[in-house]
Amino acid sequence: MIKTLCTAVLVTVCSMSASASAATSVPTPQPKTASAPAATAGEGCAVITAPPPESAPPTSVNTLRQAYFCVLDNYYSGPDMDSTALLKSAFAAYTRDLMRHGADRADLRLPALTGNRDTDWAAFAKVLGAGDPAALRAAITGMVAGLHDNHARWHRPAPPGEGGPTGTGIVGASAMQGPQLDPAARPPLFITRVLPGSPAAKADIRPGDIVVKVNGVPAFVGDTVNQGLLDAFASDKLRLTLKRPTTGRTRTVELREGPITRQPPAVTSKTLPGGVAYVQLPGFYEGAADQVIAKLRGEPEAVVLDLRGNGGGSPREVTRLLGAFAHGKITSYFCPLKGDCVPNRTDDSVPLLGLRLVVLTDRGCASACEDFSAAVKGNGLGTLIGTRTAGAVSGPAEGYLLDDGSVLLLPKVRHLGPAREIIDTIGVPVDHYAPMTALDLATGRDPGVAKALAVL
């Protein structure tokens, strides 16, 4: 469940470009498309401009070398970073993977590091020797995780011939905070979204079902969400203990991953009581702003824009959609490590709609979704209802291709809100608190919409 959700979040959260005028994301491999040249031995990482190659060499020590220098050369704070910290994180993850598979080596010790990035790498590579491919992949993952940056990721495309996407079909849970579990989440943990036709749907798992245990692991220890659930959900076979809030019935369901179908994201709309327009936007993907605007042509004076579960996307779509509600406003800032911050502004080429705006948010509203929410709140463009956003908006990420066909996503700048406030790790607070409960989902009630209608 969480593995599928995190993969979905990865593509959206990391797709903000370093410029508000052009979005950059990890290109999705397409059939019969010419492969992009992978970086070769002796070369550094290359900015990715086409789909990763359909076939590539296995992960090697050179791949780890590329990732190491790529971070130092291209990451936001890379030029001022302590290079020894990167190697320590990589080595710790490498040895943990070897131990996990019973392949630890008696002679494997971290060499003395001096802080010189080149000589330290040479000493490090000498200790690794040929390297174990699986452990090297773990080392890259550990090195990137050591940055503690929610927009830094290492992405490996699925090998050719694996067929379509697979998973359990559970793609939303109440304790999710962007791509991770929310330490502030309160019991219970419940399902928020299930893909139609998936193994979970066929097992009659529904939104609102409360997760009591996963593979025997309790969802909460006291009032604290169990972070071990991420590992439990990543297994190929799940044993879920679920409680249905409408009946109180508890049952155990065993799930295996199977084929799932993901529909392209789409804007949906309906008319609420009083003639208020309701528009649900699942992500700031290319063209999303114009789709929302098209839904609002000829509507009454107010709109409820539902951004709950919106994992983010392109900052260009953010500024374009904001341009339908205000002109001449600063929406956010992108700040380099050194030098002046660059302001992002509303797209004033978009005609104003003249609508009153209410935005629904939750802890699943991340990245570009938070960019939009902060701009609405900071510029007084509307009212925010729901719960505080994810706080996963460190900065827009650029994709870099490594020689094994994998992609390293690294932010080059930091995001600040319209008042130069930090949103990352904190989130955007709402004006009116209206969380969704398990019983609400199970019975079709929506406290966020109810509060929005009351405000309007």
Overview of the molecule:
With 456 residues, this protein is an alpha+beta fold. Among the domains are: 94 residues, PDZ domain (Pdz3 Domain); 188 residues, 2-enoyl-CoA Hydratase, Chain A, domain 1 (Alpha-Beta Complex), CATH 3.90.226. The chain contains twelve helices and 25 strands. The strands form seven sheets. Strands 4, 7, 8, 9, 12 and 13 form a six-stranded antiparallel beta sheet that branches. Strands 15-16-17-20-21-25 form a six-stranded mixed beta sheet, with helices on both faces. A four-stranded antiparallel beta sheet has the order 1-22-23-2. α10 links the parallel β20 and β21. α2 packs parallel to α5 and α9 runs parallel beside α10.
Tell me briefly what this model is:
27% of the residues lie in helices and 21% in strands. The chain has 456 residues and is an alpha+beta fold. The strands form 7 sheets. Strands 4, 7, 8, 9, 12 and 13 form a 6-stranded antiparallel beta sheet that branches. The protein has a 6-stranded mixed beta sheet with strand order 15-16-17-20-21-25, sandwiched between helices.
- Discrete helix count: 12
Helical coverage, percent range: 25-40%
CATH architectural arrangement of the domain at 268-455? Alpha-Beta Complex
The average pLDDT score comes to: 88
The CATH class of the domain at 268-455 turns out to be Alpha Beta
How much of the residues is beta strand, in percent?
Answer: 15-25%
Radius of gyration: 23 Å
Strands, total number = 25
- CATH fold-level assignment of the domain at 268-455: 2-enoyl-CoA Hydratase, Chain A, domain 1
Structural class: alpha+beta
Q: Main β-sheet: number of strands, strand sense, barrel status?
A: 6 strands, antiparallel
Low-confidence segments, ≥5 residues, pLDDT <50? 1-42
CATH superfamily of the domain at 268-455: 2-enoyl-CoA Hydratase, Chain A, domain 1
N-C termini distance:
37 Å
Shape type: globular
